[in-house]
């Protein structure tokens, strides 16, 4: 290994020498984290809108993927420490990772199977299969290299470069946050673009393609630095030693279970026949910490729902921030932004304040508070969900029908739903909301307007919405029953628009770039989808004469019927009938729950790793790292189990369930923490060193005495 170092001029009086190789490692980490978080940011929406999965399946597959990403690091650590070494492991798994990202980008190309060019893939199964292959490769790649990169960076420093190594880890973690923050802002913007060969769609290939390209860059950058790296040979994995020690102790204890064998102080002492005291003592310390890890997965079960349930919650909200339109998946950026702000604030302000109040805020108390805060964040999410649910439209269930009335005439109208169900008065040029009826009971409509009256017999198919257009013209009452082919609120903040021609002539209608075709008098067009938050130009051509007007701002997630009333001398008069109200709850209302959850993360996550490292011997850090990552994996599996088993139809109730579960776990953890006694592993190590020293001295004495005795003979 070459000892190339770079002297970096700094603001400090002295200059620090950093190995040039670590710059390649930091750039590699930035690109890799950009790639991972960028892909993950748009993943749940890709499942929902491209693969057409429902919310529950999208959430389940998302959390399965995240769980897999946190299970594979154990595999990566074993490969690196016992077989390939860190460098070869990073390179080989980065290749797997890059292929996975590329497969993911290809799987999202709509035109791959869109043979009839209707804008949706004809063979969804192929896209699903490719996506799953891509995600498995990505999970293997990102998880496999996760435990290696930071440690490989640490290997580049000499013993005397402790200060530089510490600073390297700070820069390293900064590059992780910078990568995740930038990608969570950029990839949702790329997704929101429209692209495609035959039909324009949300641009998932670009949203997945850019992370794939950055992963390729990360791999190339890492390989370029190859000659400069200090490559430590694989030393064998401490996890394997610990596992063997535990396994032997259990086996040995089972063999000697009869009462004739004396009990030992700790069940791990049964390994003393084969393993030295130091390893047994270290394993005891590790198991003591790992026991405390048992309740921790519940925290991650809530925390990782930012990318699934909370992103889906944002799709039903208003993302209009004035000049900027925020995409639902961009709300996740609130977390890394707040992390960057809050880590120094908590360290420099909040902890010292607590200390001044004479409160002993031990690491385990911090973790307990972190769990409580995460639970609180989900209560906030539930309260917000209740507000959102109030704005969501109610659609007819089986056996029900809904009807709304639009009065297209200049006289008031009264509609009696027969037999004797309900009577409604509708003012001229106005409309009602949707009214719900049992389909089997509704037989006819008795319509009165001015001095005229008609009875319209109706047979409705049920489980649908209908609009009744009523107009009293000079001769008679015209009543047109329209079928509203809308069964759900428009997704992704889009709006549905249709037109009714209230003119006596046939017209042609265009809105923006979308043509609604030719409309006969008193007929309606089909609904067309428009991006939310825009004002579009409406153009009507009547008897070869155009007239136009700018539509009003229609918000996000709404459906409107626009009635064309007059079109003359270039002036167009329209009225709007709201079929589905726009999203009215603003996305900014998600910030409080993100704030509480990020505060929970700062108190919980940072403290958790710090506590683990302070309570275990230095050579056991890898075991604890594996245990910590395992809690994240198990947390994501808990989401699958709870969401699958709860069968709650209301989303707010699921949030409350998760909050309650974490609160219970938090109480259990608080009890466990109360009985925990802190240890100083360095002291224990020093004791063993002392004992070994004495043993060596003793052996030396025996050897010298023996030598003396031999010389006398």
UniProtKB/TrEMBL annotation:
Q: Which PANTHER family does the protein's record reference?
A: OLIGOPEPTIDE TRANSPORTER-RELATED
Report the locations given in the UniProt record.
Answer: Apical cell membrane; Membrane
Name of the molecule in the record: Solute carrier family 15 member 1
**Self-association state and partner proteins as the record states:** Interacts (via extracellular domain region) with trypsin.
PROSITE patterns under this entry? PTR2_1 (PS01022), PTR2_2 (PS01023)
Q: Which GO terms describe its cellular component?
A: apical plasma membrane
As its record notes, the protein acts as a catalyst of: N-acetyl-D-muramoyl-L-alanyl-D-isoglutamine(out) + 2 H(+)(out) = N-acetyl-D-muramoyl-L-alanyl-D-isoglutamine(in) + 2 H(+)(in); L-leucyl-L-proline(out) + H(+)(out) = L-leucyl-L-proline(in) + H(+)(in); glycylglycyl-L-proline(out) + H(+)(out) = glycylglycyl-L-proline(in) + H(+)(in); L-alanyl-L-leucyl-L-alanine(out) + H(+)(out) = L-alanyl-L-leucyl-L-alanine(in) + H(+)(in)
One Gene Ontology term of the biological-process aspect is: protein transport
Q: Name one Pfam family in it.
A: PTR2
**Highest rank taxon of the organism:** Eukaryota
Its function, per the record, reads: Electrogenic proton-coupled amino-acid transporter that transports oligopeptides of 2 to 4 amino acids with a preference for dipeptides. Transports neutral and monovalently charged peptides with a proton to peptide stoichiometry of 1:1 or 2:1. Primarily responsible for the absorption of dietary di- and tripeptides from the small intestinal lumen. Mediates transepithelial transport of muramyl and N-formylated bacterial dipeptides contributing to recognition of pathogenic bacteria by the mucosal immune system.
InterPro entries membership:
MFS_trans_sf (IPR036259), Oligopep_transport (IPR004768), POT_fam (IPR000109), PTR2_symporter_CS (IPR018456)
Q: How does it sit in the membrane?
A: Multi-pass membrane protein
Q: Name one GO molecular function term.
A: symporter activity
What family is it from?
A: Belongs to the major facilitator superfamily. Proton-dependent oligopeptide transporter (POT/PTR) (TC 2.A.17) family.
- What's in the keyword line of the UniProt record? Cell membrane, Glycoprotein, Membrane, Peptide transport, Protein transport, Symport, Transmembrane, Transmembrane helix, Transport
Q: Which CDD domains match?
A: MFS_SLC15A1 (cd17412)
């Amino acid at each position: 290994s070459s000892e190339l170092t770079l002297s970096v001029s700094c603001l400090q009086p002295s200059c620090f020498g950093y190995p040039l190789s670590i710059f390649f490692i930091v750039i590699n980490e930035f690109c890799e984290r950009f790639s991972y978080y960028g892909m993950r940011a748009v993943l749940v929406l890709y499942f929902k809108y491209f693969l057409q999965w429902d919310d529950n399946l999208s959430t389940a597959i998302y959390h399965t993927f995240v769980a897999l990403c946190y299970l594979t690091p154990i595999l990566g650590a074993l490969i690196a420490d016992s077989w390939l070494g860190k460098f070869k492991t990073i390179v080989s798994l980065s290749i797997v990772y890059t292929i996975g990202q590329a497969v993911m980008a290809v799987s999202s190309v709509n035109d791959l199977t869109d043979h009839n060019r209707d804008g949706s893939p004809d063979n969804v199964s192929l896209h699903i299969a490719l996506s799953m292959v891509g995600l498995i490769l990505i999970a293997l790649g990102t998880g496999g290299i996760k435990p290696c990169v930071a440690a490989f960076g640490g290997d580049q420093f000499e013993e005397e470069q402790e200060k530089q190594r510490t600073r390297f880890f700070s820069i390293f973690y900064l590059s992780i946050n910078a990568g995740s923050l930038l990608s969570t802002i950029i990839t949702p913007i790329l997704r929101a673009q429209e692209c495609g060969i035959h039909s324009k769609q949300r641009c998932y290939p670009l949203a997945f393609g850019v992370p794939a390209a950055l992963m390729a860059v990360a791999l190339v950058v890492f390989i370029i630095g190859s000659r400069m790296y200090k490559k430590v040979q694989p030393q064998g994995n401490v996890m394997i030693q610990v596992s063997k020690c535990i396994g032997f102790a259990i086996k040995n204890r089972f063999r000697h279970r009869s009462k004739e064998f004396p009990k030992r102080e700790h069940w791990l002492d049964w390994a003393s026949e084969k393993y030295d005291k130091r390893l047994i003592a270290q394993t005891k310390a590790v198991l003591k910490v790992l026991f405390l890890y048992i309740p921790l997965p519940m925290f991650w079960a809530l925390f990782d729902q930012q990318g699934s349930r909370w992103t889906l919650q944002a799709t039903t909200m208003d993302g209009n921030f004035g000049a900027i339109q925020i995409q639902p998946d961009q709300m996740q950026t609130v977390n890394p932004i707040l992390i960057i702000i809050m880590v120094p604030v908590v360290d420099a302000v909040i902890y010292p304040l607590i200390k001044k109040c004479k409160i002993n805020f031990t690491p385990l108390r911090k973790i307990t508070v972190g769990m409580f805060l995460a639970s609180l964040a989900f209560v906030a999410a539930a309260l917000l969900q209740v507000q959102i649910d109030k704005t969501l439209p109610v659609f007819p269930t089986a056996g029900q029908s809904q009807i709304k009335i639009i009065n297209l005439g200049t006289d008031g109208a009264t509609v009696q739903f027969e037999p004797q169900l309900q009577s409604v008065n509708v003012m001229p040029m106005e409309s009602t909301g949707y009214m719900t009826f049992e389909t089997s009971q509704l037989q006819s409509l008795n319509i009165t307007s001015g001095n005229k009256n008609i009875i319209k017999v109706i047979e409705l198919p049920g489980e649908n919405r209908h609009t009744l257009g009523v107009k009293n013209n000079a001769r008679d009452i015209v009543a047109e029953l329209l079928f509203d082919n809308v069964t759900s609120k428009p997704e992704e903040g889009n709006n549905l628009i249709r037109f009714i021609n209230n003119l006596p002539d046939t017209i042609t209608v265009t809105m923006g770039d979308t043509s609604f075709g030719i409309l006969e008098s008193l007929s309606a067009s089909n609904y067309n989808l428009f991006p939310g938050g825009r004002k579009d130009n409406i153009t009507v051509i009547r008897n070869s004469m155009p007239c136009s007007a700018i539509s009003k701002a229609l918000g996000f997630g709404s459906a409107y019927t626009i009635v064309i009333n007059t079109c003359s001398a270039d002036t167009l008069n329209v009225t709007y009938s709201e079929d589905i109200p726009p999203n009215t709850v603003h996305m900014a209302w998600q910030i409080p729950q993100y704030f509480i959850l990020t505060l929970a993360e700062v108190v919980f996550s940072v403290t958790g790793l710090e506590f683990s490292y302070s309570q275990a011997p230095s050579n056991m850090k890898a075991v604890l790292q594996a245990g910590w990552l395992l809690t994240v994996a198990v947390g994501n599996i808990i989401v699958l189990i709870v969401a699958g088993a709860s069968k709650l139809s209301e989303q707010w109730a699921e949030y409350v369930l998760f909050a309650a579960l974490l609160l219970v776990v938090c109480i259990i953890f608080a009890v466990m923490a109360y009985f925990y006694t802190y240890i100083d592993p360095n002291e224990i190590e020093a004791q063993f060193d002392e004992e070994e020293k004495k043993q060596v001295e003793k052996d030396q004495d025996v050897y010298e005495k023996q030598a003396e005795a031999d010389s006398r003979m």
